[in-house]
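Worked example 2:
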Amino acid sequence: MTQVSVSNVSVEFGATTVFSGVTFTVARGERWGILGRNGSGKTTLFSLITGTQQPTSGVISRQPGLRVALLEQHREFVGAETVWEAAAGEFAELLALEQSLADQAQKLAEAGESVTAQMLERYDRDLERFQREDGYTLASRVDAVLDGLSFNPEHARTQSLTQLSGGERGRLGLARQLVSPADVLLLDEPTNHLDLETTRWLEEFLRGTDRTVLLISHDRAFLANVVDHVLHLEAGTASPYAGSYESFVTQRNERRLSLQRAADKQRKFIADEEDYIRRNIAGQNSKQAKGRRKRLGRLPRMTGPASAQGSSFSLSLDLTERGGDQVAVSRGVTIEVESRILISDFSGTIQRGDVIGFIGPNGSGKSTFLRSLMGERGIISGELRLGGSIIPAFYRQDLAQVPTDRTLYEVIAGLRPHWERRMVQGHLGRFGFSGDEVQRRADTLSGGEQARVALAMMMLGRANFLLLDEPTNHLDIESVEALEDALSDFRGTILLVSHDRALLDALATRVWILHDRHITDFHGSFAEWEDQSRERQHAADVALAEQEALRRLREKKVTQRRQGSADESRASLREVQLQVEKVEREIAVLEQSVSELTRLLEDPELYTSREGTEKSLAAGKNLENLRRKLETAIERWTTLTERAEKLAVR
């Protein structure tokens, strides 16, 4: 069933055409990746689908009653005070109905025999609506999404929104959209504030939903794991592709090759025609030459694929000097922020030529470590220093290295005061800034444009050690690919903080894993690290199943009734109660064992050696056996408590 139809749509702002001739249809349950360079109109397309913006020409049709939820890059939570209320914001009316039902139930109980038919009728009507709209499952749905996005659901019920960082507000905005009852989810860069674990959770969530998803993303691994259709905005229009992201890349390359061949063939034809015209325009074949010149003048020129007209930017990273073999040294380093230990007693060395992928949960201290290594933050104890002849360049996640009070021309000219004007303009042109754009102030630029300026500045540093903190956050896919190519050719050393798995997979020769204030140094590629640590996901799955089982057990305990019984039933009741207590002790022991094994399997250090890997496999099997025993014990406990309840009411 078609939910959204876009037919020959164009959008213009004054003399500027954003795109034209865009046609595609979206059916229920499809998952579309919306791709294109920054400024190609991806966000504009979302505005057209929601109806907040109208096309200059063309038609956009939506299924009647279609509910669309847009995840914007700037999130507000009007009317909410706590994190939980913000996540459940789309269901504010349903939550109010739940409170109303509780109030009505209290009044019915107080009214007793004087209850009126109108009171009962209203309660029945509201209760039927609450059940119809799945009110009883609302809390569990909100909790599940908050937990998946690394919030504590219980804490979220009282946590104020004012306590959240910018990244946390981004994750909360995503949670609000995922919880919403919308038929179509429009997600604009949903992975920007997610670490690797939450990104994987989001992939599973989107693959498992029966709702339609359209997402803008530069995360190639995320796209490869989620989408089954692609809309590629390029050269002022858009081309739809059916199939996975990998299929799109193949089809795109084939299409570009075909366009390039056609353009080359036309150029040869034009050159041959122009040669004939020059040779014959004044001779006996003048009439034919003039006819050919007339036809040639009317011929539409093919320019080839957009990629052949220049990439998003041209980046080349050269070294001033080779630098020493020891690029950076850490000995017993402890880093603290606001009385909270982020990294404890870390010792390690970065060698020349290393490409280290630095991963870990958001807020765990990766960016702080980079700032400490650059000398911008102090450390509590230990030694942290750069090696001899090391020239560092620091790409900051917040792009604070870009001066916002100067024009782009002034920024580059300040770094190269002896350059002529044409050289400054030429350098900015390599990064997509031409003409009057070089006179723009940096504070007027978008995030993607500021990222390109930061890279333009980094290129001039001729550093031999690059510290990169989430360098792909504001870049489109083609810019990410250009950055990846430049980093692959770089002959220096790189310390890369990123959640972009495709970039880590392509570049990292070592991996640092920050977990629970401890940095594990894994000597292998990122792909090898993911293979080695597969048991960690198994541990998480088992822990989640255990938590769910114990939650059911606790709920059962709350409702358990242990009233006094008749004399003839007391002996039997006491016997069953003793069995219940015995099983509860057994459950407590199993729960402790599961917890210990889970902590063991979550420690990244376990996976850095062959012996550790073998130990993790054995522990994983043991954990699975314990989980089955725990399930059996909980089932036995449930049976016994139900029997005790029956004896207690006799």
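The CA atoms of residues 230 and 526 lie 27 Å apart. The longest strand covers residues 2-13.
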